Amino acid sequence: MKTVQEICRDLGITRKTLFYYDRIGILKPTVRTGKQKAKEYDEEAVKKLEKIIRYQAAGLKLEEIRSVLSEPEAERGILTEVIRRQNDLISMIQRSLDQARCLLEESSEGDGNNE
Fold it and tell me: CA-CA distances (angstroms) from residue 26 to 20, 43, 67, 70, 94?
């Protein structure tokens, strides 16, 4: 079992984030112990949290992550959509870079003609 402090330290997240996941029901503590009802998480919960963090890093929204976690058969479709969105973003960035490169080349050519 891991405490909130251990999980936050090991996975680089804040207590606020972990408590938020509990509040919205995406990741509940395995047990609550002692008078303070301290939250503790077993290895399965830690693995689930690692998935949540990876999915967020990949651009999934929490509702999408909830669907993936509750309906594993939905994972492929959701991840395919995320890949499509990321590819669209890459294409947009590439077009912007190409436009900037053209503007720089035009600017350089214009500077050369004035000499």
Answer: 9, 16, 10, 9, 36
pLDDT tens string 46-75: 999 999 999 998 888 899 899 888 887 877
Tokens of 48: 């689930």
At 82-102, the pLDDT tens digits run 889 889 999 999 999 999 999
* pTM of the full structure: 0.70
φ, ψ at 42 (rounded to 5°): -85, 180
Look at domain 1-70 and name its CATH class: mainly alpha
Q: How far apart are CA 52 and CA 54, in angstroms?
A: 5
